[in-house]
Amino acid sequence: DTGVSQNPRHKITKRGQNVTFRCDPISEHNRLYWYRQTLGQGPEFLTYFQNEAQLEKSRLLSDRFSAERPKGSFSTLEIQRTEQGDSAMYLCASSGKRLAGSSYEQYFGPGTRLTVT
Amino acid sequence: AQKVTQAQTEISVVEKEDVTLDCVYETRDTTYYLFWYKQPPSGELVFLIRRNSFDEQNEISGRYSWNFQKSTSSFNFTITASQVVDSAVYFCALSEWQGGSEKLVFGKGTKLTVNP
After folding, report:
1. Across chain B, what does the average pLDDT equal?
2. Which residues are CB-contacts of A112 (< 8 A; sequence separation ≥ 6)?
3. With an 8 Å Cβ cutoff, are A105 and B43 in contact?
Protein backbone atom coordinates (compact mmCIF):
# COMPACT_ATOMS: atom_id res chain seq x y z
CA ASP A 1 0.00 0.00 0.00
CA THR A 2 1.88 2.99 -1.26
CA GLY A 3 -0.70 5.75 -1.30
CA VAL A 4 -4.17 6.90 -2.23
CA SER A 5 -5.46 5.47 -5.49
CA GLN A 6 -8.28 6.71 -7.67
CA ASN A 7 -10.10 5.16 -10.59
CA PRO A 8 -10.62 5.90 -13.35
CA ARG A 9 -7.89 8.45 -14.03
CA HIS A 10 -9.84 9.98 -16.91
CA LYS A 11 -13.52 9.94 -17.77
CA ILE A 12 -15.22 11.48 -20.78
CA THR A 13 -18.98 11.49 -20.70
CA LYS A 14 -21.89 13.11 -22.46
CA ARG A 15 -24.03 15.66 -20.72
CA GLY A 16 -26.85 14.02 -18.83
CA GLN A 17 -25.05 10.77 -18.14
CA ASN A 18 -24.20 9.49 -14.66
CA VAL A 19 -20.60 8.86 -13.60
CA THR A 20 -19.03 7.21 -10.58
CA PHE A 21 -15.49 7.58 -9.28
CA ARG A 22 -13.70 5.42 -6.76
CA CYS A 23 -11.09 6.28 -4.14
CA ASP A 24 -9.03 3.82 -2.13
CA PRO A 25 -7.36 5.61 0.79
CA ILE A 26 -4.21 4.66 2.63
CA SER A 27 -5.28 1.59 4.57
CA GLU A 28 -4.75 2.83 8.12
CA HIS A 29 -6.39 6.21 7.48
CA ASN A 30 -9.88 6.71 8.87
CA ARG A 31 -10.49 10.16 7.37
CA LEU A 32 -11.34 10.62 3.71
CA TYR A 33 -11.93 13.81 1.76
CA TRP A 34 -13.15 14.68 -1.72
CA TYR A 35 -12.08 17.90 -3.44
CA ARG A 36 -12.70 19.38 -6.87
CA GLN A 37 -10.12 21.33 -8.82
CA THR A 38 -10.84 23.38 -11.92
CA LEU A 39 -8.22 24.80 -14.24
CA GLY A 40 -6.10 27.49 -12.66
CA GLN A 41 -7.66 27.09 -9.24
CA GLY A 42 -6.79 25.41 -6.00
CA PRO A 43 -8.74 22.36 -4.87
CA GLU A 44 -12.12 23.06 -3.26
CA PHE A 45 -13.55 20.90 -0.50
CA LEU A 46 -16.59 18.79 -1.37
CA THR A 47 -17.16 16.31 1.45
CA TYR A 48 -15.56 14.47 4.36
CA PHE A 49 -15.89 11.01 5.89
CA GLN A 50 -14.71 9.77 9.23
CA ASN A 51 -14.81 6.01 8.96
CA GLU A 52 -18.14 5.32 7.22
CA ALA A 53 -19.91 8.46 8.43
CA GLN A 54 -20.23 11.42 6.09
CA LEU A 55 -19.78 14.29 8.53
CA GLU A 56 -19.52 17.36 6.36
CA LYS A 57 -20.68 18.44 2.92
CA SER A 58 -19.86 21.63 1.06
CA ARG A 59 -22.53 23.79 -0.51
CA LEU A 60 -20.73 22.96 -3.77
CA LEU A 61 -22.16 19.47 -3.48
CA SER A 62 -25.51 19.81 -5.23
CA ASP A 63 -28.28 17.21 -5.09
CA ARG A 64 -26.80 15.58 -8.18
CA PHE A 65 -23.72 14.58 -6.21
CA SER A 66 -23.64 11.72 -3.74
CA ALA A 67 -20.75 10.11 -1.91
CA GLU A 68 -20.49 6.94 0.10
CA ARG A 69 -17.90 5.12 2.11
CA PRO A 70 -19.29 1.70 2.97
CA LYS A 71 -17.49 -0.05 5.83
CA GLY A 72 -15.15 2.88 6.18
CA SER A 73 -12.80 1.66 3.47
CA PHE A 74 -13.00 2.84 -0.15
CA SER A 75 -15.28 5.69 -1.18
CA THR A 76 -17.32 6.44 -4.27
CA LEU A 77 -18.45 9.78 -5.64
CA GLU A 78 -21.38 9.72 -8.06
CA ILE A 79 -22.54 12.58 -10.23
CA GLN A 80 -25.99 12.20 -11.76
CA ARG A 81 -27.16 14.01 -14.89
CA THR A 82 -23.74 15.50 -15.53
CA GLU A 83 -23.44 19.07 -16.78
CA GLN A 84 -20.58 20.74 -18.61
CA GLY A 85 -19.82 22.72 -15.47
CA ASP A 86 -18.97 19.47 -13.71
CA SER A 87 -15.82 19.14 -15.85
CA ALA A 88 -12.94 19.21 -13.38
CA MET A 89 -10.33 17.13 -11.61
CA TYR A 90 -11.84 15.24 -8.67
CA LEU A 91 -9.30 14.61 -5.95
CA CYS A 92 -9.48 12.25 -3.02
CA ALA A 93 -7.33 12.58 0.09
CA SER A 94 -6.97 10.62 3.29
CA SER A 95 -5.47 11.26 6.69
CA GLY A 96 -4.78 9.33 9.86
CA LYS A 97 -6.61 9.32 13.18
CA ARG A 98 -6.57 12.72 14.80
CA LEU A 99 -5.25 13.11 18.31
CA ALA A 100 -6.49 16.00 20.40
CA GLY A 101 -4.70 19.17 19.45
CA SER A 102 -3.05 17.81 16.34
CA SER A 103 -3.79 17.71 12.67
CA TYR A 104 -2.58 15.04 10.33
CA GLU A 105 -1.61 16.00 6.84
CA GLN A 106 -3.83 14.88 4.01
CA TYR A 107 -2.33 12.66 1.34
CA PHE A 108 -3.84 13.07 -2.11
CA GLY A 109 -4.50 10.61 -4.86
CA PRO A 110 -3.73 11.29 -8.54
CA GLY A 111 -7.27 12.46 -9.23
CA THR A 112 -9.95 11.62 -11.79
CA ARG A 113 -10.22 14.10 -14.64
CA LEU A 114 -13.82 14.40 -15.79
CA THR A 115 -14.73 15.92 -19.14
CA VAL A 116 -18.40 16.43 -19.90
CA THR A 117 -19.14 17.01 -23.59
CA ALA B 1 -14.33 32.97 6.89
CA GLN B 2 -11.07 31.32 6.06
CA LYS B 3 -9.16 32.58 3.08
CA VAL B 4 -5.74 31.98 1.57
CA THR B 5 -4.20 34.42 -0.88
CA GLN B 6 -1.29 33.64 -3.13
CA ALA B 7 -0.77 36.89 -4.97
CA GLN B 8 1.87 35.58 -7.34
CA THR B 9 0.17 33.74 -10.17
CA GLU B 10 3.33 32.79 -12.03
CA ILE B 11 7.04 33.09 -11.34
CA SER B 12 9.84 32.29 -13.73
CA VAL B 13 13.46 31.98 -12.60
CA VAL B 14 16.73 30.64 -13.91
CA GLU B 15 18.21 27.56 -12.33
CA LYS B 16 20.19 28.19 -9.12
CA GLU B 17 18.30 31.36 -8.30
CA ASP B 18 16.51 31.59 -4.96
CA VAL B 19 12.77 32.12 -5.12
CA THR B 20 10.17 32.97 -2.48
CA LEU B 21 6.50 32.10 -2.81
CA ASP B 22 4.16 34.27 -0.79
CA CYS B 23 1.12 33.14 1.18
CA VAL B 24 -1.22 35.30 3.24
CA TYR B 25 -4.10 33.81 5.17
CA GLU B 26 -7.20 34.95 7.03
CA THR B 27 -8.84 33.11 9.89
CA ARG B 28 -10.78 33.99 13.01
CA ASP B 29 -9.64 30.91 14.87
CA THR B 30 -6.71 30.92 17.27
CA THR B 31 -5.78 27.31 16.55
CA TYR B 32 -5.13 26.49 12.94
CA TYR B 33 -2.71 24.70 10.65
CA LEU B 34 -0.90 25.86 7.55
CA PHE B 35 0.32 23.65 4.74
CA TRP B 36 2.25 23.78 1.51
CA TYR B 37 1.62 21.32 -1.30
CA LYS B 38 3.41 20.87 -4.62
CA GLN B 39 1.54 19.88 -7.79
CA PRO B 40 3.96 18.85 -10.55
CA PRO B 41 2.79 18.52 -14.16
CA SER B 42 1.75 14.93 -13.44
CA GLY B 43 -1.05 16.41 -11.31
CA GLU B 44 -0.71 14.67 -7.96
CA LEU B 45 -0.57 16.97 -4.93
CA VAL B 46 2.51 16.29 -2.83
CA PHE B 47 2.57 17.29 0.83
CA LEU B 48 5.56 19.47 1.77
CA ILE B 49 5.00 20.86 5.26
CA ARG B 50 2.47 21.37 8.05
CA ARG B 51 2.74 24.12 10.65
CA ASN B 52 0.49 24.79 13.64
CA SER B 53 -0.43 28.27 14.76
CA PHE B 54 1.50 28.00 18.02
CA ASP B 55 4.83 27.25 16.42
CA GLU B 56 6.35 30.28 14.75
CA GLN B 57 9.81 28.84 14.37
CA ASN B 58 11.10 28.89 10.85
CA GLU B 59 11.82 25.53 9.33
CA ILE B 60 14.45 24.38 6.89
CA SER B 61 14.46 21.14 4.97
CA GLY B 62 17.28 20.85 2.49
CA ARG B 63 16.80 23.59 -0.11
CA TYR B 64 13.33 24.42 1.23
CA SER B 65 12.60 26.84 4.04
CA TRP B 66 9.43 28.31 5.47
CA ASN B 67 8.87 31.59 7.27
CA PHE B 68 5.75 31.78 9.43
CA GLN B 69 4.85 35.23 10.77
CA LYS B 70 1.64 35.41 12.75
CA SER B 71 1.84 39.20 13.02
CA THR B 72 1.42 39.55 9.27
CA SER B 73 -0.61 36.33 8.75
CA SER B 74 1.96 35.06 6.30
CA PHE B 75 3.54 31.69 5.65
CA ASN B 76 6.11 32.13 2.91
CA PHE B 77 8.08 29.40 1.19
CA THR B 78 11.61 29.82 -0.13
CA ILE B 79 13.47 27.50 -2.47
CA THR B 80 17.20 28.03 -2.42
CA ALA B 81 19.30 27.25 -5.50
CA SER B 82 16.25 26.30 -7.57
CA GLN B 83 16.36 23.35 -9.94
CA VAL B 84 14.37 22.48 -13.05
CA VAL B 85 12.65 19.69 -11.07
CA ASP B 86 11.17 22.35 -8.80
CA SER B 87 8.94 23.48 -11.66
CA ALA B 88 5.37 22.95 -10.46
CA VAL B 89 2.33 24.70 -9.06
CA TYR B 90 2.66 25.33 -5.34
CA PHE B 91 -0.38 25.65 -3.11
CA CYS B 92 -0.64 27.12 0.35
CA ALA B 93 -3.54 25.82 2.45
CA LEU B 94 -5.18 26.43 5.82
CA SER B 95 -7.23 24.24 8.10
CA GLU B 96 -8.92 25.17 11.34
CA TRP B 97 -8.96 22.87 14.32
CA GLN B 98 -12.56 23.06 15.46
CA GLY B 99 -13.15 19.40 16.21
CA GLY B 100 -14.60 19.05 12.73
CA SER B 101 -13.33 17.86 9.42
CA GLU B 102 -10.16 19.97 9.24
CA LYS B 103 -10.89 20.48 5.58
CA LEU B 104 -8.23 22.38 3.70
CA VAL B 105 -8.84 25.79 2.20
CA PHE B 106 -6.38 26.33 -0.64
CA GLY B 107 -5.03 29.41 -2.33
CA LYS B 108 -5.12 29.62 -6.11
CA GLY B 109 -1.53 28.48 -6.39
CA THR B 110 1.68 29.90 -7.79
CA LYS B 111 3.09 28.35 -10.93
CA LEU B 112 6.87 28.19 -10.69
CA THR B 113 8.94 27.65 -13.81
CA VAL B 114 12.65 27.05 -13.38
CA ASN B 115 14.54 27.43 -16.63
CA PRO B 116 17.89 25.76 -17.26
Report:
1. 92
2. A6, A7, A8, A9, A10, A11, A21, A89, A90
3. no
